[in-house]
Amino acid sequence: MTGPTRAEYCVIACAEAWRDDGEVLASPMGVIPSIGARLARLTFAPDLLLTDGEALLVRPDGTPEGWLPYREHLGWVTGGRRHVMMGASQIDRFGNQNISCIGDWERPRRQLLGVRGAPVNTLNNPTSYWIPRHSRRVFVDRVDMVCGVGYDRAAGARYHRIPRVVSDLGVFDFATPDRSMRLASLHPGVTVEQVREATGFELTVPDGVPATREPTGEELRLIREVVDPAGARAREVAA
């Protein structure tokens, strides 16, 4: 078996977001987060609940295992029993996220998805982020519009938490006194200097940044043969 690719390290980093969550509803958005959630369910997070995005609870292979009525889904959303992994067109040092527009919101240069469910997600249940192309255009000093709420704006919201941000360069958290972003691990082949150069604000960088956890042989087998045999992960992160 060949060694893990950058995409597979990203899968592992996303999967780890749900470690120790217990019986919560995983809501991964994107290819690699979805592979990560399914891998977590098959390995270290057997109590994790997966959904088809509509009304069914599903097994890692996508077959139904239960029904999730909309009224019950809303209860999970607002009661801290869901852990979302969203994307971000922009994210700042405190975890404020933008998926709505680029430029002044009254006259934006570019219209994006819109605010959608980001405020409800971030204020009412844990929310992590997946960013497949780490750059200064995404990791910005100040987002143009706040959609997902960061630590400086959460005002003590009971279920607000941002467990981690995963990019194609590394893993980031907010384990700092002021709850600003910290470099938690580097994917193999990536340097601290590369991350700093690709980030539009000053990151907290501890001494001796560890490497992102390597997938085990069994995890690699599951990724390649069970969860993503078609190799969709490589289309999101090619390295």
Automatic annotation (TrEMBL):
<dbReference type="InterPro" id="IPR037171">
    <property type="entry name" value="NagB/RpiA_transferase-like"/>
</dbReference>
<dbReference type="Pfam" id="PF01144">
    <property type="entry name" value="CoA_trans"/>
</dbReference>
<comment type="similarity">
    <text>Belongs to the 3-oxoacid CoA-transferase subunit B family.</text>
</comment>
<dbReference type="InterPro" id="IPR004165">
    <property type="entry name" value="CoA_trans_fam_I"/>
</dbReference>
<protein>
    <submittedName>
        <fullName>CoA-transferase subunit beta</fullName>
    </submittedName>
</protein>
